Amino acid sequence: METSAIRVPAGPASLEIRRGYEPGLIGRVGELHGRYYAMAWGSGAPFEILITREFCDFVEHYDPENDLVLSAHIGPVLAGSISMFGQHQGPDGVQLRFFLVDPAYHGLGAGKALLFAALDWCRERGFHKVFLWTVDGLPQSRGLYEKAGFRVTKRVPDDRYTVLRENLKMELTL
């Protein structure tokens, strides 16, 4: 995987958005999701295993022409990530996945920078629709998605993550 970087000012520190795989990314993305969702709603090892396994599969089959992985770094620390599944585009468009910013870095613009860089990538490649699944009850995430133009199109109960939650499908037409 090719890696490239974009520097973005972010409060007192420098935010750098990097494209592509780099060592430690897989483990850190799994850790971020595992820790965040354990704190947010008590998920356990099954959720962290599921996310890490799915992210491993994504990286293993990564096609740099049709897929995207971005990571946000503040100094030497990986603060967040986002991915786009473009190679399996269907009628719902490309799928946004694995989007999370470490709560220690909330408020520095990393989430917004990751989301808008990913959406710009979609536009550059001519993708016209983007969808994602999120869990209801995460107002900061939902607010960011809605500010970007995403709208809820479906609600589905889901207990795969060790705690019953309502999943929201959100879609955006570019």
Structural features, described:
It is a single chain. This protein is 33% helix and 40% strand. The chain has four helices and eight strands; from the N terminus they run E-E-H-H-E-E-E-H-E-H-E-E. It has helices at residues 25-41, 45-60, 110-124, 139-147; strands at residues 4-10, 13-19, 67-74, 77-90, 93-101, 129-135, 151-158, 165-173. The radius of gyration is 15 Å and the shape is globular.
Based on CA inertia axes, which overall geometry fits?
globular
Number of helices: 4
Percent of residues in helices comes to 25-40%
Structural class, please? alpha+beta
Count the domains. 1
Number of strands: 8
Helix/strand order, N-terminal first: EEHHEEEHEHEE
Architecture per CATH nomenclature, i.e. the level-2 architecture:
3-Layer(aba) Sandwich
Rg (C-alpha, Å):
15 Å
Low-confidence stretches: none
Sketch the major β-sheet: 8 strands, mixed
The CATH class name reads: Alpha Beta
CATH fold label? Aminopeptidase
Beta-strand percent range: 35-45%
The pLDDT mean sits at 88
Supply the CATH superfamily name. Gcn5-related N-acetyltransferase (GNAT)
Q: Terminal Cα separation, in Å?
A: 26 Å
In short:
The chain is α+β, with helices and mostly antiparallel strands. The protein is built from four helices and eight strands, in the order ββααβββαβαββ.
SSE blueprint and pairings:
Layout lengths: L3 E7 L2 E7 L5 H17 L3 H16 L6 E8 L2 E14 L2 E9 L8 H15 L4 E7 L3 H9 L3 E8 L6 E9 L1
Parallel strand pairs: 5-6
Antiparallel strand pairs: 1-2, 2-3, 3-4, 4-5, 6-8, 7-8
Helix pairs in contact: 1-2
